Amino acid sequence: MQIKDSVFIVTGGSAGIGKATAKMLIEKGGKVLITGRNKERLESVAKEIGALPVQADVAKEKDVMKTYDVLMKEFGKLDCLINNAGIGGKWEDVFSLSNQNFIDVYSVNVIGAALMAREAAKLFKLQNYGNIVNISSTAGTKGFANGTVYSSSKFALRGMTQCWQAELRKYNVRVILVNPSEVTTAFGNDERVERPEVKNKLRPIEIAHTIISSLEMDDRGFIPEVTVWATNPF
């Protein structure tokens, strides 16, 4: 796809991978709507990078619908949804798993992503064209100790991606799954303070590059799934 003049939604776009991706898309001439829960931070980032901000929590269906209402009023179309919003929740072992942790994490990582994709898919079917990028994790390809809730939510996102690929391919819709390994972001930090860059760790810009490079492939082909590792993180 051509990034220039295409319209994008980036959920969780006020920090980390979402911000880096939105910024790079705008630098390439894309029109970008970003969502986030913190109004002040969202509006500050939107002003900084030139995006359209919509305060929204993807776990709330009314906020999802508001996002698409604003999108259509401002841009009149959508070319690509980037499902980036996600949370880690609490790291619990099997002996202490809590119902609320599952609800909190799945509401964003699974249900929120699905609701956003549902509305995008409706537009894409009418257009007979579109792109969805789901930001998952290497935790969605291999579980780890104390990661039952988070890891399983990303396994679910991987499964949903494959379902949507099967359902939407006939409408010329590409659905791409991106699995970053550890990235130095504010992920897992309740205060949402960005971690400092570490020389041998992945940065948000590496994931943004992966997302955009995958999208820039000619529309006749697509990458179903891509995993990004740091070369030598130790």
UniProtKB/TrEMBL annotation:
<comment type="similarity">
    <text>Belongs to the short-chain dehydrogenases/reductases (SDR) family.</text>
</comment>
<dbReference type="InterPro" id="IPR020904">
    <property type="entry name" value="Sc_DH/Rdtase_CS"/>
</dbReference>
<protein>
    <submittedName>
        <fullName>Short-chain alcohol dehydrogenase</fullName>
    </submittedName>
</protein>
<keyword id="KW-0560">Oxidoreductase</keyword>
<dbReference type="InterPro" id="IPR002347">
    <property type="entry name" value="SDR_fam"/>
</dbReference>
<dbReference type="InterPro" id="IPR036291">
    <property type="entry name" value="NAD(P)-bd_dom_sf"/>
</dbReference>
<dbReference type="GO" id="GO:0016616">
    <property type="term" value="F:oxidoreductase activity, acting on the CH-OH group of donors, NAD or NADP as acceptor"/>
</dbReference>
<dbReference type="Pfam" id="PF00106">
    <property type="entry name" value="adh_short"/>
</dbReference>
